[in-house]
Specification:
By secondary structure, this protein is of the alpha+beta class. The chain has four domains: 45 residues, no CATH class; 46 residues, no CATH class; 282 residues, Orthogonal Bundle (Transferase(Phosphotransferase), domain 1), CATH 1.10.510.10; 121 residues, Helix Hairpins (Orthogonal Bundle). Helix content is 36%, strand content 9%. The protein is built from 23 helices and twelve strands. The strands form three sheets. Strands 1-2-3-4-6-5 form a six-stranded antiparallel β-sheet. Helix 14 packs across helix 15 and helix 21 packs across helix 23. The longest helix has 24 residues. The N terminus and C terminus are likely disordered.
Length: 664
């Protein structure tokens, strides 16, 4: 055959043809060498044309194995001799060699404990002593392969069942035969079939969780009353009316301003001052200086604070105002937090300003119980319930314990300086003022803390007797107190009033130990209030999500700039979002009257936000077309449309991401 310009297949094979043996020694060993053509091409075309090499691969492989085994296991191979024996000496110096006895060949083979063929005595090290790992909630019957019997009726197992491995799950195993092979939870197969079957084994695992059902409201307790479904109204889905009204009133009081005010426009970095005093009379009974209280907003953080001003105070010692630093570190829920103290002359005099937390619409105990600032102040008021008075006692005791443990003294326990911020919730106020005003007075902290206990007892006696001037006649006041309240409360007040006796030293820790039973009761009431507020919070949990969802819908639907762009608002996903808006808000009944159903609105919006698979029918306004679409598709369209809206240059050219089924 003539050779062409391009090498052909035959020439390629010829270039790798059988090697020609050279020499006598090579020709004799050629029959024991496998031909390279058989290795490369599977056969040799020169087998019948005089090729001297071996063309039987099976014979060659068996011969090669025998030769290799002979090379590995040769009787003439020298025996292994260790360099050192067990006692550390060399073999040459060892007088006796350790060898295996010939009787070891007749020893029984080793079998672990628990084996069916084992007849020997159980040993100490046994596999059966270690229990097998069993997952929690594991059912052994779930892993038994379902055997498919062949149609011949002879009871033979199918190949899929015979080769079934319960710890290997492959698609071929799942599809083999007519039987169903259970899924293996230990396999690492991430196919769709394995993921679907795996959900049945571990439904509590994170990988198999279903989407949270956000469209379902969870009524979390406590429930004050048991109402039937037809007795419930719209307000049951939101905050209680009284709590909402209280919060709104506090917000309105916080934002209140005073137009045409003669007060300074700025006091340091505070502005928008509003006076909080109900009386315009100067009162210097508590601090020794006339004091005024203002609400102001900080220009640093935008929060609202209370500025308590002491009129006409001149600071003579810098250490006096530094004592406020210790009070700034006090953190207690029963104390009004102190933030700062400074002197100023913006009020046309030398004034001392204390910056404290602002609690809107708070009252003092004197205003709430003793009628301070009321023209009917001398009228007899109803006594305070004992449980409420115990609540005051425990809260004040908690505040004093924190103050005394910090090496300080309250020094101000007056009904006019204790705030009632909410129902039965009080806070000590103006505690640090006397430390600055009376800084030069040399009194030990121990004496001041003992005085706190006496003033504490006088405060409870004043509130219990329900008269501001009751301490002028303490005997008569205690007699009235004993008739109204229990002996335990009376003894507690007497213990406080006698705290400054010289025979024994008393402190707040001893008092707290004596009223421990009432502390438990007050703590239990606080937990009940926490549960109630948590239950009310659950009602408002979904409002933020629904507001964001409605905002997105109104951003997308019928935008004016796309009014003449049919590709934006009247086609694709934007069109059936527009129809969904009609489905939610513009439904009518059989008489063509508008349907105003808040429950329908909340349910549909929550299902949209959750992206459920439930399908709804959306009908066009001309009733010529209808769409069958799921909430999942609606959510996908909403997100893609909103993302397209964030890019105005491409908003009109985006193609719809999903097309629902349309019926005419």
């Amino acid at each position: 055959m003539a050779s062409s310009g391009k090498p052909g297949l035959d020439e390629g094979r010829r270039s790798t043809g059988s090697p020609k043996p050279k020499g006598r020694g090579v020709s004799e060993n050629a029959k024991d060498t496998l031909c390279r053509n058989v290795t490369i091409y599977g056969k040799c075309r020169y087998e019948d044309k005089g090729c001297a090499f071996n063309h039987d691969p099976h014979k060659f492989s068996s011969t090669h194995q025998q030769e290799s085994s002979k090379k590995r296991l040769n009787v003439e191979s020298p025996s292994f001799t260790p360099s050192l024996t067990s006692n550390g000496s060399s073999p040459s110096t060892s007088s006796k060699k350790s060898t295996i006895s010939p009787q070891a060949a007749n020893a029984a083979p080793f079998q672990p404990k628990g084996s069916s063929a084992s007849t020997s005595t159980p040993s100490e090290w046994s596999v059966a002593d270690v229990p097998d790992f069993v997952p929690q909630g594991f059912d052994a019957t779930m892993f038994q392969p379902q055997v498919t019997v062949s149609g011949s009726g002879n009871g033979a197992l199918s190949p899929a069942a015979a080769s079934y491995d319960p710890f290997v799950t492959t698609p071929s195993t799942l599809a083999a035969g007519n039987g169903t092979v259970p899924a293996n939870p230990y396999s690492q197969d991430t196919t769709a079939a394995a993921a679907t079957l795996g959900a049945a084994f571990y439904p509590a695992q994170a990988g198999f969780h279903q989407p949270p059902q956000y469209h379902l409201y969870a009524p979390v307790g406590p429930h004050s009353q048991n109402l039937m479904s037809y007795q419930r109204n719209v307000h049951d889905l939101f905050l209680p009316s009284d709590l909402r009204e209280e919060l709104q009133r506090k917000a309105a009081a916080t934002l209140q301003t005073l137009p045409n005010s003669t007060l300074p426009t700025h006091v340091e970095h505070f502005h928008s001052l509003v006076p909080l005093d109900l009386s315009h009379q100067k009162n210097a009974a508590v601090f020794g200086y006339p004091s005024w209280v203002y609400k102001a907003q900080s220009s640093k953080d935008g929060n609202y604070y209370v500025l308590r001003r002491l009129e006409g105070f001149r600071l003579t010692n810098e250490k006096a105002i530094r004592s406020v630093q210790a009070w700034k570190r006090i953190c207690s829920a029963s104390i009004v937090t102190i933030h700062d103290a400074f002197t100023t002359r913006v009020f046309q005099d030398s004034s001392l300003i204390f910056v404290m937390d602002y609690h809107p619409l708070s009252k003092t105990l004197a205003e709430h119980h003793l009628g301070a600032g009321n023209r009917f102040q001398n009228r007899h008021n109803a006594p305070i319930p004992e449980q409420v008075l115990w609540s005051y006692v425990t809260q004040i005791a908690s505040a004093l314990k924190i103050i005394h443990s910090s090496g300080l003294a309250a020094r101000v326990l007056d009904p006019s300086k204790i705030l009632l911020t909410s129902k039965n919730r009080i806070r000590l106020n103006a505690c640090s003022i006397l430390d600055v005003v009376q800084h030069d007075t040399e009194r030990s902290i121990s004496d001041l803390q003992q005085e706190d206990l006496v003033k504490f007892g006088q405060l409870i006696l004043t509130l219990g007797a329900n008269a501001p001037n009751v301490m002028h006649t303490p005997g008569k006041a205690m007699e009235h107190f004993s008739r109204v309240y229990s002996p335990q409360l009376k003894n507690s007040v007497l213990w406080l009033l006698n705290a400054q006796q010289k025979d024994q030293e008393r402190n707040i820790d001893m008092f707290v130990s004596g009223i421990s039973s009432q502390l438990i009761s007050t703590f239990d009431s606080a937990l009940h209030l926490d549960d109630q507020l948590t239950s009310d919070l659950y009602r408002e949990l979904e409002n933020g999500r629904l507001v964001r969802l409605l905002t997105k819908l109104n951003f997308i639907n019928e935008r004016p700039e796309y009014e003449h762009d049919r590709q934006w608002s009247e086609n694709g996903e934007r069109y059936f979002l527009k129809l969904f808006r009609d489905y939610v808000f513009h439904q009518v009944d059989a008489q063509n009257n508008p349907v105003v159903d808040l429950g329908h609105v909340l349910m549909t919006l929550n299902k949209l936000d959750a992206g459920t698979d439930e399908k709804i029918m959306l009908i066009s306004r001309d009733e010529q077309s209808c769409f069958v679409v799921s909430y999942k598709e609606l959510k996908k369209a909403l997100e893609s449309s909103f993302q397209a809206l964030m890019k105005p240059s491409t908003a009109s050219t985006n193609a719809p991401t999903s097309t629902p089924r349309r019926m005419h």
